[in-house]
Structures are given as C-alpha cells and as structure tokens.
Design a protein that fits this description.
Elements (H helix, E strand, L loop, with lengths): L1 H21 L8 H11 L42 E2 L8 E6 L7 E8 L4 E6 L4 E7 L1 E6 L9 E4 L3 E4 L5 E4 L4 E8 L5 E2 L11
Antiparallel strand pairs: 1-2, 2-3, 3-10, 4-9, 4-11, 5-8, 5-10, 6-7, 6-9
Bound molecules: copper (II) ion.
The site of copper (II) ion has 4 residues, from loops.
C-alpha cells in the first residue's frame, strides 16, 4: 500500500517537473510563465502555451539558417523596409530584403526600387523569377540585347514569371518598385560581362 502510494507520488512529481520544464520562460518575455504556473496548479494534463521560438530578425540577410523551416510569421509595412544599394545592378537601384537570405536555398521575398530612366542590360537568373509590379512602370523585354522598342510596359499590379536562365532586360521612365519572389540561391549574370557593374570597378 505504502509502496503504491509512493510510486503514484513519484509519477505525479515526474509529470509536474516535465510540465514545468516544458514551460521554461521565453527569452523574450515572461508572460507565458504565469500561464504555465496556473495550468500546473490546475489540471496537470493541460499543456502550457508553447514557448514562442525566438523571432529571427526579419528584413535581415541573417534571418534563418539554410533549409530551416519557417518558424514564425513576417509582417512588414513599407516603413519597415530597409533599403540598400545593389552591387549587382547599375547604380541607383535599391533593394529591401523581406525574407531570405538570397544566398541560401530558401524562399525569398525582396523589393527592388529602380529610379526613373534606369536600364538593366540583358541578363539571366539561376532560378525562377517572379516579379510583381507595385508602383511605376516596369518595361521588360526578352532577348540578348536591351531594346526599348521590344518591351512590354507592366503597370502596378502586373506580374511576370520567367524560367531560370531566361535572357531579359528592363528599363524605366519613372520610379518603379517591384517585388521579387523566388527560391535562392539567387544571382544575376549579364549576357555581356562588360555590363556587370561588379566588373566596373
Ligand atoms: Cu531579371
């Protein structure tokens, strides 16, 4: 009888300590600790609120390690975007990375802002390029040489999707913002290497 009582108590102790261990306070705040404590006082079988995984810094190139499953949501308003120069595009273009990083085999979402009267010579990318025009006019054409007479004017709301290694070119006559979605690793190769701003140092 006594042995049975002790073994039941030890089982309960193990359960309680397991629950408390699972409810360790989140590094970002202690609110769920309180929630856990009240749960363990009440019904032991109740699981506590899962500890939120630390949020990887969004809008940052160091967001998540390669192939990591997405663990949290990303919300970005236009004022959250951090615009930076794009060494692989002619001077004047800016990029804001929302999801990435572009260098890894993970989904990415970036915004590209092109100034007015801007040209991107013929180039290709190693992965599918999905472009959504958010503002301005994105004039895009297919082929090996930039020809402003052979482009389609894509206004805000337009979409273009290109397979990997599709030679294409772009020009603008007004400031234009597009969103790129794809899966990295991303890159840009100019048909004519002399067009590559990275070669023009
Ligand atoms: Cu492109």
């Amino acid at each position: 009888m006594l042995t049975k009582g002790i073994s039941i108590i030890s089982v309960l102790l193990v359960l309680a300590s397991t629950l408390l261990a699972a409810c360790a306070p989140a590094p970002t705040g202690g609110s769920n600790w309180l929630l856990c404590a009240s749960d363990s006082v009440g019904i032991l079988a109740f699981a506590c609120e899962p500890t939120p995984t630390p949020v990887p810094p969004p809008l940052s190139a160091a967001a998540a390690p390669a192939n990591a499953p997405m663990v949290t949501h990303i919300i970005a308003t236009p004022k959250d975007l951090k615009w930076a120069d794009v060494p692989s595009l002619p001077k004047g273009a800016k990029i804001a990375v929302i999801e990435g990083p572009l260098t890894e085999a993970v989904p990415f979402t970036v915004r590209i802002r092109l100034p007015a009267d801007f040209k991107v010579p013929a180039h290709w990318h190693p992965a599918i390029e999905r472009v959504t025009v958010l503002s301005g006019t994105f004039n895009v054409g297919m082929g090996d040489t930039l020809d402003t007479q052979k482009t389609t004017a894509l206004s805000a709301g337009s979409v273009i999707i290109m397979p990997p290694k599709t030679n294409h070119f772009v020009w603008t006559n007004e400031e234009t913002i597009v969103q790129l979605n794809g899966t990295g690793p991303w890159g840009i190769t100019y048909v004519n290497p002399a067009d590559d701003p990275r070669n023009q140092k």
